[in-house]
Amino acid sequence: MAAKLGQITKLKGSENYQGWAIMAQAYLLREGLKGAILSADNTQDRIQEKALADIILICEYDTANHIQACTNGFEAWKILKDLYNANGFTSKYLLLQQFFQASQSDFESVKAYISKLKSILNNLATQELVMPEIAIIAYLLQNLNSKYNAFVSQVTQSLRVDPKAYN
Length: 167
Known about the structure:
Order of helices and strands: HHHHHHHHH
Number of helices: 9
Low-confidence stretches: none
Number of domains: 2
Radius of gyration: 20 Å
Shape: elongated
Number of strands: 0
Mean pLDDT: 87
Largest sheet: none
Distance between the termini: 39 Å
Helix content: 55-70%
């Protein structure tokens, strides 16, 4: 079964670039278009135009604005990589900002909240920035709403008795 563009989460920015790039490359490979993002010289069978169209279609509108003037897939891929493949301070700063601004009240469920935090932490880890486990647990517990006070008490008590209780 062929992959479909709609199955790939659209690129939002640095927050999901790492995962998006993996999925986008796999899709382009399956469609026979991966060569377009490897070399600007690869122009057979309109590969550059097809790759460009697919890349634009798997970007959110604001992100696609950065590549709207591109004429080929290679150029678009390079621009997105340069913008969002965060290796520098700015990318780490933006991810940390997202992490510390995340609050359970911003999400439909605790599961969605934790999933978002895990996604941000995974992106930070790919940039070799790993937060201490105790800081992650403390931050997550601090931002749960009052409905979870009993749970927070239980977790903190368990950690007092055994600091490795939730490893």
